[in-house]
Amino acid sequence: MLRFKQKIHWRCPNPPQPDKPLLIFFPGMDGTGSLLRHQIETFNLGATFDIRCLSIPPDDLSTWEQLTQSVIGLLGREIRLHQRPVYLCGESFGGCLALQVAVVAPNLLDRIILVNPASCFNQQTWLLWGSYLPGWVPTPIYHVGVIGLLPFLGSLDRMAPRESQDLLAAMQSVSHPSSIWRLNLLREFEIHPHQLAKIPHPVLAIASTHDLLLPSVNESHRLTQFIPKAQKVILKNSGHACLLETEINLIQILHAQNFLPSQKPKIQRSLSVA
Questions:
Q1: How confident is the model over 176-200, as a mean pLDDT?
Q2: Could you tell me the pTM of the whole model?
Q3: Residue 126: what pLDDT?
Q4: Is the dihedral of CA 181, 3, 139, 243 positive or negative?
Q5: Mean pLDDT throughout 31-59?
Q6: DSSP 147-166
Q7: Do the beta carbons of residue 118 and residue 92 sit within 8 Å?
Q8: Which residues have a Cβ under 8 Å from the Cβ of 110 and sit 6 or more positions away?
Q9: Are strands 203-208 and 86-91 parallel, antiparallel or unpaired?
């Protein structure tokens, strides 16, 4: 059973490693921060990065601005402790948050990884209409209904049973009101081409061809069109929650794209926020 502190915080899946670059994982709509476990345990992500996973309480009703400011506060404290490269890795809902942080506080980070980001949510008419359904469904039915969404959330045939169970547990952990609220945030999310064009960092957009939830491949094309230092990777046959799939190795992808951190020491950075 997943347990939560009742405020936005980091989860530290490994002991701190201040000599390594910092990787901040922004989770999908579940907000648990627990679904990076497969990459950490199976592919030893912690050998390259000091990892923090953002955890958003299941009843949290923060706005985009509040989420962004909470993350900036947490990130600022990390930077004051240790000057080092900072990677943001945002998956789905977390991809939207990573873009928000990049626009508001670009000086706090160095590279961005976007995994099937939900920044394209409002491009899907059926998804926009369907996102209103949880508001009409009684809470007991809502939690059972999440099971029916699993094939849309991930390619279950490409996951081990434990990862499928973790995905279901994470989605069912979100309260009914919070689920309605986070869907509303996705409907409202907008980032304009002129904002994308001002992101100065290298960005890697990872998109799955079999994403049944979002037009992720098209969104990867859009992001790389407008973000000056963006590149994309297309994962054939992968679904939306691709980081849970048995054969998807994030470190291997980063290495192939020359996106791993250098070993040069980090220069002093300003903590001011735009």
A1: 92
A2: 0.89
A3: 46
A4: positive
A5: 96
A6: HHHHHHHS-GGGS-HHHHHH
A7: yes
A8: 85, 86, 87, 201, 202, 261, 266
A9: unpaired
Among the listed residues 24, 32, 36, the one whose alpha carbon sits nearest the alpha carbon of residue 68: 24
Q: Among residues 238, 5, 219, which one has the least CA distance to residue 96? A: 219
d(CA 117, CA 112): 12
What is the C-alpha separation between 97 and 268, in angstroms, rounded?
25
